[in-house]
Design goal:
The chain is mostly helical and 400 residues long. It folds into three domains: 42 residues; 69 residues, Receptor-associated Protein, CATH 1.20.81; 276 residues, no CATH class. Helix content is 76%, strand content 6%. The protein contains 17 helices and three strands. β1 and β2 form a beta hairpin.
Length: 400
């Protein structure tokens, strides 16, 4: 016995189509919708009430997993709404489960995938959403999800490498600051008091160390407040466009960080640019989107200017010539891509080249920082030792 099933589906151009078919069961209804040349999004007897959900507690790894699962659903030709419900049922995280269920309900109620995801922009980010929107319009959703998954995996792996590389230097730096503060606050003043009792004239270095130590003892809360205040001020500055640009410029003037940040920024820029172009986004919007995705304010500013020049009629080659951030290799490859009409492929070449460089630098970041820490440790030990031993030598001369 057949029954009526309502469906929401997309055609080859990505447009929404709604209607009804008769079939014995839901599987038969899905086959009937596909026979019409449509891709089913929702097939069922009715629509369910929507529930609210947020994106709090959803990590980038959760988004990566969901991206893989969405791609699998498309490969299996399972209606997205039905597949997302199955994913939500198996999800153990409450925040992720609520978000996936909300997305499924929005899609089943007639929203596009982009509209359903846009409600959770905090979790997915603007680049993810714009790529999905372009993929829906161009019918390249599966390939776009593959590119997004690769990009998210690269971000996670790179972040882990940098975190692991900086753990040892951070521990050494913390021990250095703590040990120096202890010496200045508790050790140096005792020595200076002993020297003063014996009538030894204290050198300027020893007097300076004594003054710093006594200041630390009396006003430690002030120093702690300055450190916390500086951190909060930097965080507040990063929240504003002008402050973010100034801080990024300062970081790029740091020799050890410049190459790491540039490699990471160029890799992300090239990867997202190629991904956006492959998804059907026009060059101007793709440039701006790739710049924002790089996470580097200096590159964001440059790509906005490049996009403006392209809109004004300049070629990509002319626009790239104004960039001071992008290295020569990237400019040449992107220019060659424009001339040969293979810009997405050249973007991938640039991304892979700088990805290898970023991987090498991030793995060896700790090795690069170690000489600086050793030099700082040596300098601190030398200063404290001289501050203590100089008056001891003077005291020994008086005793003779």
């Amino acid at each position: 016995m057949s029954a009526a099933f309502e469906y929401t589906a997309t055609d080859g151009s990505g447009k929404r189509r709604r209607g009804s078919v008769r079939a014995a069961d839901q599987a038969g209804a899905i086959r009937a919708v596909r026979a019409l040349g449509l891709t089913p999004v929702r097939v069922g007897h009715g629509r369910e009430r929507l529930v609210a959900s947020g994106a709090r507690g959803v990590s980038r790894r959760d988004v990566l997993q969901l991206t893989h699962e969405l791609g699998t659903l498309l490969d299996a030709a399972v209606p997205i709404g039905e597949g997302l419900r199955a994913i939500a049922e198996q999800e153990t995280g409450r925040s992720v489960r609520s978000m996936v269920l909300r997305i499924a309900q929005r899609i089943e109620s007639g929203s596009t995938v982009t509209e359903a995801l846009r409600e959770h922009e905090r979790a997915f980010g603007p680049v993810y959403l714009e790529t999905i929107a372009a993929a829906e319009r161009s019918g390249t959703m599966r390939s776009a999800l593959g590119h997004l998954a690769e990009d998210l995996e690269w971000q996670l792996e790179t972040g882990q490498r940098i975190h692991q590389s900086l753990m040892y230097p951070a521990a050494v730096a913390t021990a250095l600051v703590g040990g120096t503060s202890f010496l200045l606050a508790f050790v140096a003043p005792k020595f200076t008091a002993m020297f003063a009792e014996r009538g030894v004239e204290l050198p300027a270095l020893t007097r300076g160390l004594d003054a710093v130590g006594r200041s630390l003892q009396a006003h430690w809360w002030l120093y702690l407040g300055v450190v916390i205040g500086a951190a909060l001020a930097a965080r507040a500055a990063w929240a504003t466009p002008a402050g973010r640009l100034a801080l990024d410029a300062a970081l790029h003037r740091t020799p050890l960080l410049r190459r790491v940040l540039q490699s990471l920024g160029v890799t992300r820029f090239a990867r997202v640019l190629g991904m956006s172009l492959s998804a059907g986004i026009d060059l101007m919007d793709a440039l701006e989107q790739a710049g924002r995705a790089s996470g580097r304010p200096l590159l964001v500013r440059e790509t906005a200017e490049m996009a403006r020049r392209v809109r004004a009629g300049s070629s990509l080659r002319e626009a790239l010539a104004t960039s001071r951030y992008l290295p020569i290799f990237a400019k040449r490859m992107l220019t060659a891509g424009e001339e040969t009409a293979e810009l997405p492929r050249m973007c991938e070449v640039v991304a892979r080249r700088h990805e290898r460089e970023a991987e090498h630098l991030s793995k060896n970041l700790g090795t690069l920082v170690e000489p600086v820490l050793i030099a700082a440790l040596t300098a601190v030990v030398l200063v404290v030792a001289l501050g203590i031993f100089l008056p001891m030598w003077d005291m020994a001369a008086l005793m003779r």
